[in-house]
Amino acid sequence: MTTLNSPLPPALADGVTRLSHWGVIRIQGEDAAKFIHGQLTQDFALLSADQARLAAFCNAKGRMQASFVGYKSAQGDVFLLCSRDLLAATLKRLSMFVLRAKAKLSDATDAYAVWGLSGSATKSIAGGAHSAWAKAENDAETLVQLYPAGSTPRQLCITAADVAPPTGTPLDLDAWRWGEVVSGVATLSVPVFEAFVPQMLNYESIGGVSFKKGCYPGQEVVARSQFRGTLKRRAFIAHGELAMEAGQEIFSADDPEQAVGTVVQAAPNPAGGFDAIISLQLVAQNSLLLIFGTALHLLPLPYPLLEDI
After folding, report:
1. Radius of gyration in angstroms for the set of CA atoms belonging to the chain, rounded to a whole number
2. Is there a single domain that holds both residue 114 and residue 206?
3. Which of 4, 137, 198, 307 is most solvent-facing, going by the fewest CB within 10 Å?
4. Residue 4: pLDDT above 80?
């Protein structure tokens, strides 16, 4: 595998930032959890008060149309946080499946503020839970523990839109976006709509897929990719000198005409250059990788990949 021979990347700064690139879908009604359980890759029927979920919404071919961080409120409503550029189309698609379910879906982005907390700005969660997707809720806010950026802890904090922001040093949004990349947990956006099955973004290894729940759109394809050894792509973190953005193609020096990977999301590295989550063909991971003719270097993943479920 190609690796980056440079000092360790800088730490994500401590602070608080408003995540303007995230949107909020709210599902109300007595069938809210039951309905969304049948649509996403993760189990929402057994979702407890101290848990959140990473999940994908797929088409019939198992290709991701959106990704979410989801949780259930104390009142029983389900909240799905996703890339804002996908929200309207995703809300429309999900609403088509409601049928007789007692569930009402709405765009709640204007009613809530989604904040990113990093480092010393993160807050304690009851029981000292620091594992990813732990959740805590009180009258003022909901906290969701995320995968860290290197050694820097990160959380989502969801509040009503009209309350004061969480306490902490203001953090630049680009710095937070870089932390998202370094965490290795990809968020789907418009440029990579329907480009990947969940395992191509390592979702089965980071809590984004349940292989024990019932059916959902694309479930057979996702399961077959896992258990029949048909997966040919994985997500990696890569560093390059030029600016990168979602949807750009990556090539191998062995065959500069045929793309071997795709940029999923990217952000400027505070120490220089750009870092990106890329979805890469496994046969190309030991090749010299190129984007716009310049070299990309793979960095170690911050989490292990599951070899067996």
Report:
1. 19
2. no
3. 307
4. no
**pTM recorded for the entire structure:** 0.93
pLDDT tens-digit series, residues 126-182: 656 679 999 999 989 999 999 999 999 999 999 999 999 999 999 999 999 999 999
Q: How far, in Å, CA of 307 to CA of 159, rounded? A: 38
For Cα atoms 135, 141, 147, give the angle at the middle one, nearest 5 degrees. Answer: 35
122 & 46 share domain: yes
Within a domain: residue 179? yes
What are the residues whose beta carbons fall under 8 Å from the beta carbon of 225, sequence distance 6 or more? 62, 197, 199, 231
- Give the residue-averaged pLDDT of 228-245: 91
pLDDT level of residue 9 (50, 70, 90 thresholds): low
Task: Give yes or no: residues 163 and 197 share one domain.
Answer: no
